[in-house]
Structures are given as C-alpha cells and as structure tokens.
Amino acid sequence: MTDKSGGGGAPRQLKVRVKTAKKRTASSTRWLQRHLNDPYVARARREGWRSRAAFKLIEMDDKYKLLKPGQRVVDLGCAPGGWCQVAAERVKSADGNPRVVGIDYLDVDPIPGVIILKKDFLDEDAPQVLFDALQGEKADVVLSDMAAPTTGHHKTDHLRTIHLCEVAAEFAREVLRPGGSFVAKVFRGGTENELLAGLKRDYASVAHVKPPSSRQESVEMYVVARGFRGVQVEAAEDGDE
Predict the structure, then answer these.
(1) Is there a binding annotation on residue 132?
(2) Which domains are assigned to the chain?
(3) Partner of 125 at 20 to 30 A CA spacing, among 7, 44, 62, 187?
(4) pLDDT reading at 239 higher than 80
(5) Residues 8-19, buried b or exposed e (16+ Cβ, 10 A)?
(6) pTM of the prediction?
(7) Is residue 61 annotated as involved in ligand binding?
(8) CB-CB contact of 93 with 71 (8 Å)
(9) pLDDT tens for each residue of 140-151
C-alpha cells in the first residue's frame, strides 16, 4: 500500500457512464455509476485498502490521534476489513503479536496482525469471545462502523443504528482501559439524549464528526469519545443509618 497518510485528494479521472441493464433498476444503475466515479473508491483500490471506508477512520485518526503504536483495538462489524487494516498499520500490529481484534457475521479475508472472529456482535456470548481474544488485556480503542440494514424509513433506520451504538458503547465501557477511545457510527440527528449523556459521563471529550470521505448525501455521522474515565460506581451502597 502507498500514501496512507490520508492527505490530499485523488487525481482526476474520466467519468464512467453505466448503461441500464435489463435486470438492473434505474436506482441500482445510479448507485453503480456513483460508485465507479467515486474518487475514494479508486484511491482505495490504488492504495490496497479493502474499502473506501478506510479513509473515514484515517481522517478521524489524523484529526483526533486515536491510534498509537502498541495499543489494542477492537473493531465491531469489521467487514470487509478496511478499518482493521488501518488500525493494524497504525498500532503496529503483527501476526506474532496481534493487537487488533475484528468481529463480523460476514466472512472477512485474513489481515496481517488482526484476529478475525466470524460472529454476530449481538450474540449473547460475543462479548466473552472478544474478551478471550484480547487474552485478558483491556482495549485502548473500540471502533464500530456497524449500521443496521436500511429500510428506507429514516426514523426506523436511525433507531436501529442507535441501538447498535448503544450496545457497542456498553461493551466499550466494560473493555476499555482508562484514557481509551470509542468511535461509532450514528445517523444524522446524532446520538439519542440518554446515550449522549452516558458518553459525556464516561468520557472526557465527546464530538460528532462527519469525515470528508463520508458522502455528503449520506445521513451517517460518527461519535468520537475520548478519555475514558473508567467504570464509575453508579450508586453508592446504603450505609448504616
């Protein structure tokens, strides 16, 4: 891979026009044409990233300095592996001492320095499987690019993705070491009040971010929470009265 700093844009390229095929709808044709003409798609192929989504993490990390050599990282919903690639490179993870763990119910081809778990993160035993993969160590960063399959109904899609974010946030609360970071996808409109309040309680800094590589027409955003305070005692036990 080359030029992985995330700096600069992709060189101009000739626009690809896609003809409508008999078995392809007009909307599918428009999506394919947009995809083929996306400079980030071309750049991802050129630099060896698994998907254009890699640039979203690159851009957020360049801004917030989330990933550092030697850290342990968990990537929730990691397919096809672009974020794992970025994380493994930036924390200097290697096969002999893997420091990145990814989980997804979809197949993910092997990535050097990454432990890939084929499992649905929403399965009841998934957190324990991830804990075991970390070999008893706390994580420094928890990443989640998970999004529920869209229905076309904005409110429903928003609530389903917020649920994934809530589950990811609770997992991060259990697995992160103090000072750690949590990054998760949300939809435009940001996080729900209860979730946002919990993040502000648990982290020193919480921000909503739309990376430059996120398509402008997309409703996706990311919440970036830094400076995990550690698990707090939520209620003092009753003392003698």
Answers:
(1) no
(2) 18-48 (no CATH), 51-228 (3.40.50.150)
(3) 187
(4) no
(5) eeeeeeeeeebe
(6) 0.81
(7) no
(8) no
(9) 999 999 988 777
